[in-house]
Design goal:
mainly beta, about 55% strand, globular
C-alpha cells in the first residue's frame, strides 16, 4: 500500500461531543475540501508528541497529537489527527492507496 501525504485542515463531526476537548475520540465524519466523508471504521489510534509546535513542558504533561487511521464508507483509508497546539486543529495527513 502506498502512502499519499496530504496535510490539509479538515472539519470533523462527532455523534457525541468529546468528554475532554484536548483529548477527543475518533470523529464520526469529516469534511475535506467541501466533501463529506463518513467514517465506517477506526483501524488504529496512536499519539505522537514530537511535533515542533508542542513545547517540551506540554510534552511532559502528556499533550500530544492524536492520530486516527480510519476507513470511510467508500473504502478509502485516511490518517487524520488532532493537534492540541494553539486553538487545536484537525488535519488530514495522508491517504493509503492500494497499489493494485
Amino acid at each position: 500500500m502506498a502512502l499519499h501525504l496530504i496535510t490539509n485542515p479538515i472539519q470533523v463531526q462527532f455523534s457525541e461531543p468529546p468528554r475532554f476537548v484536548r483529548k477527543p475520540h475518533c470523529p464520526q465524519s469529516f469534511i475535506w475540501k467541501g466533501h463529506p466523508y463518513q467514517i465506517e471504521a477506526l483501524l488504529r489510534e496512536w499519539r505522537h508528541s514530537n511535533s515542533p509546535r508542542i513545547s517540551s513542558a506540554k510534552r511532559r504533561l502528556g499533550v500530544a497529537r492524536i492520530y486516527f487511521r480510519v476507513q470511510v464508507t467508500t473504502g478509502r483509508i485516511f490518517d487524520i489527527y488532532y493537534d492540541p497546539a494553539g486553538d487545536g486543529a484537525w488535519i488530514l495527513s495522508a491517504e493509503h492507496l492500494d497499489e493494485t
